[in-house]
Amino acid sequence: MGFLDKSINELINREYPCSCGRTHIANIENIAIGVNALQRLPEFIKNQLLPGGRVFDPKQDQILVVSDVNTHQAGGKKVFEMLQQEGFQVREFVFPYPSMHAEEQYAEELKAALFEGLSLIVTVGSGSLNDITRFVAFHAQIPYYIVATAPSMDGYASNVSPLIHNNLKITYSCACANAIIGDVALLATAPTKMIGAGLGDIIGKYIAINDWKMSHMLYGEYYCGEVADLVLYSVQKCVDNVPGLIRREPEALQYLMESLVLIGIAMSYIGVSRPASSSEHHIAHFLEMKSIFKGEYGELHGTNVGMATCLIHDMYRKFLEMDWNFDKAREHAKQFDYQKWEQEIRHSFGLAADEVISLYQKVGQNEPEQVLKRIDAIEEKQDQLRVMLEQVVKDTDTTAGLLRQLNGLTSPEGYGFDKGEIRDILRFAKDLRNRYAALQLFYDMGVLDELADHIVEAYL
To answer: Where does the source fall among the domains of life (predicted)?
Structure first.
């Protein structure tokens, strides 16, 4: 099939029978990334198919331009005025908040702003606005476009929306944006920290692909090597262009934006975020939840992912230095105390604890019988696993240095959490998702607490 030989627009809106046995598709109709990409917006709209099969009619169909107080100034106002000048019937909705997470309360605000005759939503922004709009547009069955204001995260082409629900980040299946526009002139105005966040989200894919492949090798989880190769190609393309990102060169910004979109396409191909999200994302989500609990905005998602990638890198490296004692791991598994675990979850997750406990009751990831079976698989394939982990440690050796060049964070120091909180984040982040990854591997081998202590002492 050869994903790597195709342009980004050849990878969308068509079916690809794959060597993995599945047929992949990303239902995105148009992507424009590069110089003057925004100029293609009117063309896309005029050819947009609406539910029912008819083409967008400027005489009867209306557009809602969505932004917030920051992205309105960065590009929302320009998009609104452009569409007015092109003769479209357009209204705008501006979230009045200087900072906001993707929370259901904001989705409800946007939902309330929808109106009769609305046929298309054009959102100008990045992570939170994109996730909120995708969720609302999907449930309203209205096409939506995203005009990116920062190359800060990999969700532009995703078909899922992670939203805060009942104080827990829940990933909802939705639909892809109908069009994605990344104009490098607009992307170049993004703060350096947001560009660094995009790099952080990208670099975390080394861990995500490793853990996906690891779960496939150990337990037979579905895995697509061609999608994994597409993700790793995107990561390397981005890493190779960090010097250009520092100088805000148009070509480097285009590469970063394309890489972020390609990873979103990979997620759409699989139907879930598995090719792009693993333990580094579980830690990032927990950090974001902790900030929300404190009434703070916290760091950008990609910033958290980049920092967490540094931590998982160090934990994997330390794990490789350890004696893998399978008898000790089995004894540890047998000693699991559900009541103690639930108490610790309620202490760590607070208002979100019920959702985590509910997931455990469905999955039972720490139940001794399940863990013992996994330990058997780890012991049987320990040589292959060791080679795999040595490679991912090598791949992420330069992560911290690259992130620092773009104002990224590489340590939990400065987050405002004490040693106990960071330790608990590392111990319990795995319980946020039913997904086998590094932190669950460490738990299964009976060394998660020891590795969490190692990180706390090394960084704080």
So the answer is: Bacteria
Distances (CA, A) of 67 to 63, 70, 297, 298, 439: 13, 8, 18, 20, 37
CA 353 and chain centroid, separation: 22
The answer to whether the CB of 177 falls within 8 A of the CB of 200 is no
Give the pair of three-digit tokens for residue 262. 């390609």
Mean pLDDT of the chain: 95
Length of the chain, in residues: 460
Task: Match 């029912």 to its residue by tokens.
Answer: 52
Structure tokens at 77: 């106002």
The architecture (CATH level 2) of 27-190 comes to 3-Layer(aba) Sandwich (3.40)
Instruction: Dump pLDDT digits (tens) for 177-205.
Output: 999 999 999 999 999 999 999 999 999 99
**DSSP letters spanning 376-436:** HHHHHTHHHHHHHHHHHHHHTTTHHHHHHTTT---SSTTSS--HHHHHHHHHHGGGGSS--
Nearest residue to 221 via CA among 270, 284, 161: 270
- How far is Cα 318 from Cα 301, in angstroms, rounded to an integer? 26
pLDDT for res 1: 52
Six token digits for residue 303:
């910033």
Here the tokens at position 43 are 């063309």
- Residue 214 has which token pair? 């690891």
